[in-house]
Every structure is written in C-alpha cells, then in structure tokens.
Amino acid sequence: MRFLSVNADCFLIELSSLEETLALYGKLQHARLKGIKDLIPAAKTILVFFNEIETHFEALVSVINTLEIGSTLEQNAQEVIIPIQYNGEDLAQVAALQGLSVADVILKHQQSVWNVAFIGFAPGFAYMSSPNHPFTDIPRLQVPRKKIPAGSLGLAGKYSGIYPKDSPGGWQLIGTTNDKMWDLQRKNPALLLPGMTVHFEDRTHLPVSINVPKQIIQTEKISLEPVFQISSPSLQMSFQDEGRFNQTNIGVGTAGAMDLSAMHSANRIVGNPVNTPVIEILNGGLKAKMLHSAVIAVTGAISNIHVKFAGGQNADFDSYQAIALDEGDEFQIQMPTAGLRNYLAIRGGFDFQPVLNSYSFDSLAVLGPEPLKMGDVVYQAKVATTNISIYEIPKANLPSVGDTVELDIVMGPRTDWFDPDSIAKLCQQNWLVTNDSNRVGLRLSGLEPLTRKITHELESEGTCIGALQIPPSGQPVLFMNDHPLTGGYPVIASVAKYHWDLVAQIPAGCFIKFNRIQEFTKIENAYEH
C-alpha cells in the first residue's frame, strides 16, 4: 500500500488488487475517521478527500495504516437481477478473442456472479467484476464508437458495464437491457451501487418488456414573479451554486460555480446568503428585459453592464455594484475586458428546482437545471435577504488574451511516471490555453510535450479539480469543476486550491506558467500484505 500526494485536501491510496481496494474502502466507510469528507474508489486506488482544519495527510496515513483490511470485500446484502438480450454487435469478436463459441461467452457471462466494484465514467456507470474471472482481459476497441445507446452491456479488461445513457465509448458490446441504470425519478437514481451483487438473466430468446417512462407533470409558476426574460444569449448561461457534495458513490461530481469567490460576492452585493444560486455567464453577451423590478449584481470577469431604461435613457454600470432596475428596463452584460466568466445574482434569488440537492448544471454529466436560452423567463424566489453590501471589489489583475498566468501546483500522484526532463519541462515552459477548453477542463498546448517513463496503461483512478492529466499526446488537460470522477491517464500534478477561481477566469489565448510549491510525496510499504 502506498500513499501518494494529490493536493492540500486529498491524497491517493494505492493498493495491490481490486479486492484489497474494495475491502479498505468498506473499512473506511465504516470507520468514519475524523476529517474524511469523501472517498472515490477505483480499480486499485482510493482517492481520499479530507477537511484540512480537522486533520492532515500524515495523521490520516498513520491511522489508516493501523486498519486490518484483509482482502475480503464485505458485500452489500442487496442483489439485483438484470435481464439481458445477448445481441451485442461485438459478441462474435469477443468470442473469437477468448477462443470460445458465442454460446459459451453468453453462458459464462450469465452464470457468473458480478460485484459492483465502483462507479465512474458517468453517473450510474457501474464497473462490475466477477470473482469467477470468466474471461481473460478484454481489450477496448481501437477506435471508440461516437455513440453507444443507453442500456448497452459492454466488456473491457476484467469488467462488465452497462451504459446509463447514450454516450461515446470503447467497450466491446455483448448485449442490451431495458432496465434503467440511471433515473432521476427514482429515490435512488443509480440502480447499481458499490458492493451490490448482480446476476444477469438471459432473455435473448424471450419477449422484451418495454419500460414506459413516467409522465413528468410540470408545475405552473402561478404565484411566482417573473423577473426577466432572455432577449439575447451568451455562449453559455447556466445556474450554479456551491456544487453537489457526497454524491460520488453514484458517479456524480461536484460541478458548481467555477469562480466561487465571484459567486459569493454577487450574492453579498444584493444581500443574499452567499450560497444562493446564480447564473454563470461565459464571455458576456447576456441581454434581458425586466418583467418586474429587482436589484441585480454582476461579478467575476470585468464587464460593463449597459442599461436601457424604460423611459428611454441609457446608462453604463461597472461590475461589482448593486443595480436597481424596474419593469421594462433592459440590461446587457458586455464582453469582458479581463477575465472570462460573469456571475449574475438578483436580490431574493432565482426560483427553480434542485437536482440531487444542488442547483448546479454539470455539463459533462448533463445533470441539473437546463442551461438558459433565448426567450427563457427567469422567476424570482423569496430567499431571506439582508443589507446590500457596498464593500465588494473586483479581483486585481484578471487575465486578458495574451497574458501569462502563474499557477501554483502540488506534485503527484503520478509524478514518478514521467522522466525527469518532462517534470522539469512542466514548469520551465509556458502552456497555451487552447480554444478547446470548457467547464470540464482547459486543454493546454506546449512546444515540448511531456513524455512518460512508465508507459503501460493506467487503470482508472479518482481525480480532483485542478488535476493536470497527461494523455498520450503529452499535452496537459487541466481538470475543472465538471471533470469525470475517474480517469485513465496519469496526473502529474494539481493546481493549488487557492488558484481555482483564477483558472475559471483564464480565456483561451492566454499562457500558463506552473510554479511548484510542493514536491511529490509518497509513503511506501505502510502495510504488509
């Protein structure tokens, strides 16, 4: 067992097998060690998040090192039977790779007991392993499919998995099911959870039952005040709050406002609690007409707010101030002169429904209230308010296109997978922020790509916001709020937490210079198997 540094509030535990990993995961869940906030299990690792005020890396290593973990997984008592039509388009190819007949592949898969090991890739996507080991490792497709239908049963490596929604993927498809792996209308949206036992029922030659989706009844907003209507959109307008927490066991990440301090400022300016949902706006452009009087504030990127009053007068306002508007007034957030993302708050907050205890839209999982579009009407809530704040100020020196931004990084957890020259190159050269960047991550480009000294495939492991993942191209991807919970490329370092808000404001065309503030830390041989 090894403990590897990741960031100021998280570290990675590396173990020797899936069985040992899941056994320790079960122990940690039941032990409820002081300060641990969340755990993300994967094939041979557990990513541990902790409260920096209550504990620290070395203290948790010391305590975890005393746990007798063994290698026996304590299974969830719940068993699930999933009907499968073994009709996948890769079934014959899998049979050939295994040296079996198609009938034998179906029989081996259907008669094996499968355990849900961990959730990753997408909400509700369960990685299932079998103690029977019915197949040798099954390679992924050389060219992943652009779209795999929801309900498709696939094999990859030692795992079985069922796609919860239409998505790209490279697993070998052997069947389909009509059972929904992910359904927000259920009390527990994910059908499968870590520790569950799964049995597959062969229904290839039996009639297929059709699951009729429930009708969703929209509740009319009769007593609520419409506050404004979008008359011209920005590139992206999504509701965001502080994010979703403690949902990783069903494969759901944090999401939330990328510039949290700007979100908090917007709410303080209009007198809302700081965690009241706001609208995150990419690169300005939002234009709206007031349908009712309200007080608004715009923070984050430095933008001019142009107001056309109902009486015909025009005025321009700076960001970071309260703006009182009446019915018929129009306002537009101009393109930022510095920074990238604006945050719009109204006094009393916005009214809409949360999804999994959060108002945030997750662009990767496509989860949460839908992004706003032209013509949408926004309603005002009745959040308890306090006095308007006049003391909020913009961040100094927000970046503009062409600027070089310095970001502090913590090395790990896979720094030792790279040769010394590449580790040095990470901080010696500037990295261009490309146009192919979004809430999932910033794609960077450098003159000299990084190269690995350990070249074998990395099994999926948990990742955090700020992680610098290095794909085969050697060009880093800086993960942000909507990043996948697990990833299969090594992470060389992570951006320090206090610079995440700054990352949210870096436009494409800027350069990033990394500054090492903490070297890679690993504690090895802490546990004798």
TrEMBL record:
Keyword annotations from UniProtKB, A to Z: ATP-binding, Hydrolase, Nucleotide-binding
Entry keyword annotation includes Hydrolase: yes
One GO term in the molecular function aspect is: ATP binding
Instruction: Offer one Pfam family short name for this entry.
Output: CT_C_D
Query: Which segments constitute the Carboxyltransferase domain?
Result: 1-192, 249-527
Reply yes or no: does the keyword ATP-binding apply: yes
InterPro entries in the record, alphabetically? CT_A_B, CT_C_D, Cyclophilin-like_dom_sf, PxpC
Q: What is this protein called?
A: Sensor histidine kinase inhibitor, KipI family
Q: Could you tell me which species this protein originates from?
A: Acinetobacter puyangensis
